[in-house]
Each structure stands twice: as structure tokens, then as C-alpha cells.
Fold these 3 entries.
Entry 1:
Amino acid sequence: MKISIVCSSGLGTSLLIKIQLERILKEWNVDATIINTDVSTFNSEHHDIVIGAKQIIDSLEIKHHTEYIALENLIDPDYLRQQLLSNEVVKIWVNQ
């Protein structure tokens, strides 16, 4: 499984979300490759899930083979956990 976290610069916000996501996936025993990237170099061709701030996700070209999680709260790990669990692909990963 491959997850991309996209933000405007590929540093601050995406790194914060990546750290939170790694902790959550570890709790769930889910193995995934997680990369953080900036919106200008992002390519959604080879990702299962793309996560980012709502305004960033809304600006991306949507690919039908990719799941998108648009976050309105970038700081709260419980909110991130809730958004992940509301995604059907993540539910499958967690229940394997």
C-alpha cells in the first residue's frame, strides 16, 4: 500500500501528518509506504491513497484508481484517525 501526503511545500504540514499517520498505522498493524510531497511535483499515478488539506486535495486532478482524504483539521490525530476509518480502502487494510 502506498500513501502520499501532499501539501504546498512538501515539508511542514505533510511531515506532521506523516508522523501522525505512521503512529496510527503502527497501532493498527498496517504496513504502508508513506511519502510526503509538494503539490507542484505530485503525481497520483502510483498511490492507493492521497491525504492532504482540503484546499490542496480540491486542487488536484482526481484519478479514479486513487482514494483521496481531504482534511479540515491538520493537527488533531483523533480527527485523522476518524477520517481514515471512514475510508473504505483503509477499513479493508485495518481488517486484514
Note: The chain has a mean pLDDT of 90.
Entry 2:
Amino acid sequence: MMKYRLHSDSPDLRPELRRFFACIKYEPDIEVVKGAARHLLESCDRLFLDNAKEVFRKEVQNIHDCKDALEKMISSERSQWAVERENMELQLNRCRRHIEQFPNIHKERAIIMAELNATRTQIEQYRLRLRQKCEEVDRLEKERDSIAALAKEFQKLDQDSQEQIKEANSVIDELERKLKDVCADLERYA
């Protein structure tokens, strides 16, 4: 027997369809068949709506989780940058103290040059790390933008699914009308 499922997360409609087909097959009273048809349609609406709500809830939760993780990562990077800046300021303060402690100009110059070279090296390393961090922030911002784009796409998909539900309801209304016509024909010929 064919499975009536939308996709892997969709509810199974087979029990409702079996009840409806059994009612059509064995129930002579047309009002009971109409009631069974209404019950089937209500069950379909309920199952599809519940499924759509669950899929939407999971996607929204996933987007929130990604956003939280991204914000934590950015906050952590900012904290690291603040610590590195503090360390650099401490090193510069040490350099200043060294300059004040040495009376001999030649010694001071040699020490200052050595520390200056070390500081330049550290600044270059810091620039390199800063460039890497900026690239990482750019990547994270692109990921954030990608997540936002996914959220917009999901919203569009949700709107599309609402339109599909409306179309399905139109088809159901048409089927109900045809069922009424068939029932009326059956009553005429009965």
C-alpha cells in the first residue's frame, strides 16, 4: 500500500485514510460518510499544521543557537584582544621605566634599541594576529549573514507552504463539493 507522507518528519495519514475508506466501503448512510470525510479533512489539516509548526520551531531554535554561538565567539575574541592590548601597554610601561633607570646615554640607547626591536617584533606579531582575527571576524560576519539569509529563505518557504496549504484546502473544498454531488446522485438513484 502507498505511504501518504510529506517527508521524513511528516505525520502518517494512513490510519485516517483507512478509516475513511472503510466508512465509504461499509457504511450505507451518506451522512456518516460525509462526517467521516469531514473528520479526515480535519485530521489532515491538524496533522499538516502540527508538522509545519514543529519544523518551523526547530529551524528557529537552530537559528537562535547559531546566533548565540556566534555572539559568544565574538565576545571571547574581544576579551582576548583586550588582554593582549593590556600586555602591550605593560611592556611599553616597562620600557619607559628602563629608560628612566639608566643614566648612561649609550647604555640606555642600546637597551632601548633592543627593547624597541623586541616591541616592533611583538607589534608585527600583534598586527599579524589582529589581521587574522579581523579575517576571522569577517568570516563570522559572513556566517551570520548566511544564517540571516537562511532565516529569510525559511520564512519564504513558510509562506510558500502556507500557499500550498491554501491550494490543498481549495482542492479539498473541490473534493467535498464533488463528494456532495456524488452523494446527491446516489440519493437520486437509491
Note: The two ends are 32 Å apart (CA to CA).
Entry 3:
Amino acid sequence: MASEKVETVVAGNYVEMEREEDVAQVLLTLPYSFSQLGMASGIVFQLLYGLMGSWTAYLISVLYVEYRTRKEREKVDFRNHVIQWFEVLDGLLGKHWRNIGLFFNCTFLLFGSVIQLIACASNIYYINDNLDKRTWTYIFGACCATTVFIPSFHNYRIWSFLGLIMTTYTAWYLTIASLLHGQVEGVQHSGPAKMVLYFTGATNILYTFGGHAVTVEIMHAMWKPQKFKLIYLLATIYVLTLTLPSASAVYWAFGDLLLNRSNALALLPRTRFRDAAIVLMLIHQFITFGFACTPLYFVWEKFVGVHKTKSLFKRALTRLPVVIPIWFLAIIFPFFGPINSTVGSLLVSFTVYIIPAMAHMVTFASPSARENAVERPPRILGGWAGLYITNIFVVAWVFIIGFGFGGWASMVNFVRQINTFGLFAKCYQCPKH
């Protein structure tokens, strides 16, 4: 009984870390999304994508348990081996699914790490603007490269709990500071005004609740991975208690000013509380950079054949080539906010929503597969019929709204940032001195 309680706490920390991984920096851009969507749509999309994200996390957990159970029946030994999502797809559906999953998952994690690095530079600038954001990106890139020495997710246990505290503080700081600040003179809330802005904002929220690209690796670290789906749902509900009040309060206070300030911290007056929020975000973003990169490190280690070596130094040297392109991309595309929407529409839509839903439907397409399933859908969902209807809805919605309209809008907005600020922008959205 005691071991089960420990397992639940540790698993809860891991899952909270996964949920906070993207929410940490998206917390600062959600008010920007509200200015694009309007208050009502912003709230509705958060609730909708929070529910969809929890659903696909459930599907991934079911597929993981199915894969592992089948392999263990074949006497496969997983000691000193971390199971990853592409291996689950390979074992259940074959190499073509594996290759598709590997491409989208790795590309998403790559750009997720890029966004963390961009966020670090964007945040520290509001404490010390003696250096431009590009220079800060150089500095934090070097700092984040030290994550190659962190072996696995087990080493993030205490940091996962601290990260939760850091994000909670920042969320409530944004809420309280905005309410105390009050509405700026002549505040306007014109959103939604343009389709491009509307779907750009929606895909940023899609990205917010699509942070479970490391679900399989976390489940592999659990004694009872079946608990994952419930813990993830509770974590999502907690995240909503942070994102809804903070985004609503900042948008209420500053309105359309957020359209040109994707980082909410840029509009709040400098105080010791704001500086504390920035410092906590910087620490947390360093942690989540490593958290997002760890699956990439594992993939690369397996590719070059050093995944099972016990030499920490050898593994660290092997991992360095993974960090270099992340650093470079953060310098080329420093568009904090717009890049979230682009990644959300083009990568998260497939990685976290479409592929898991389709993989689940194909895996259990035959009557025998459904009959022998390790974990069957609960009756409250309507059994297999209800599950398939829900999966079809998720695939259709995300493909049309998220990838289709969202991809069009986010790319138009992204190109607009390039035309306005240029590649390798020295100081994106910095006020003129």
C-alpha cells in the first residue's frame, strides 16, 4: 500500500512536469492568443483542447500497455532499455507507422526545445536589457547544453515538483498583478478581428495542451503505468486552473496591446514580484529544455549504439550533436509566440492528436484484437463504438481546424514576422530606446 502511494506521488510529479513542460512558457503567450481569439473563444478552446489532450494521452497509455504486455508474453527483457513511442508503433503496426511517428515526434521535441530556448532569452531581457535577446540566446544555449550530463527522467524527480511550484507562482502573479494594475486607459478588446489571427491563436492553445510527446518514456518509468491516464487528467484540470485565470486577467487589463507583445511580462510594470516570476521561469525552462531533449538523446544514443553503455561521459559526448541544431534554430527564428502556433499546427496536430487516434483505431480494427485487448474502453464511453466515434471526431477536427486552417494562419503569421523582423532578428519585439 505504501509503495502504491509513493508510485502515485512520483508518477504525479512526472506527469505534472510533462504538462508544465509546454505550459511554462505558453503561460506567457496565452494572453496573446486571447487577444487574437477574444475572451469567449479563448476559454472555449482551452477547455476543448484540454479535453482532447487528455483523451489522446489516454489512447497513448492504452497502446503502450498493449505493446508492453505483448512483448513481455514473448519474454522480451526491457531492463536497461527505455521504451519510446516509435517503438510502440513499430511493435503494434509496423515500420511505416514507426517511421512516421519517429519523424513527427522527434521534430516536435526538437522545436519544443527551440521554443524553450527562445523563451529563456525573451524572459531574461525584461530583467536585464543591456544585452539583446540574440546574445541571451547564445548564453542560454550554452547553459542548456549541460543537460547532456543528465542521464534519464529519474533525475528530474525533485525538479518536477519544484517546476510545478514555479509555474503556479508565475500564473498567479500574472493574474493578481493584472487585476491590481487594472485596465489601461482606452483599453480595447476587438478580438476576434481577422481569421488569420483567430486560427493562429487557436493553434497556440492546441500546442499548449499537446505537451505529451514524452508520455511513453514517463510511463516506462512507472511501476503501474495504468495509473497514468487518471493522473494526466487531474494534471490537465490543475493546469486549467492556472491558464484560464491568468490569460483572462492579462487580456482584460491590456486588451489589444497584446497583439504586438506576445510575452505578457513585457506589459507588466517591473517589480520584485515580476523579477521573481522571471527567475523562476528561467530555472523551469532550463529544466524543461532537458526534459524535452531527453527523448531525443535516447533516440540518438540508440542510433549510434551507445544507449546501453554505462559511461556517463561517453553518452554526454554523444548527445552534444543534438543540442547544436536546437541552438542554431533558436537564433534563426526568435519569434516567441508565433513559432508556438506554427509548431502546434504542423507538428503537434499529428504527433499528439492525429497519429495516436489513428494508431489506436488501426490497432484494434479487427474483432480478435478488440476481443484480446489488454485494456478495453470503459462502458461510460459507449464501448468500442463510442471510442471509435470520438477518435474520428478528434482526427477530423484537428486535421481541418488545427492543421488546415491553423497551418494556413500560423504560416501566414510566421512569414509576416520574418518580413517584419528578419531572420536572425537581434531583438524580437524589443521596445525602441
Note: Residues 141 and 327 are 6 Å apart (CA to CA).
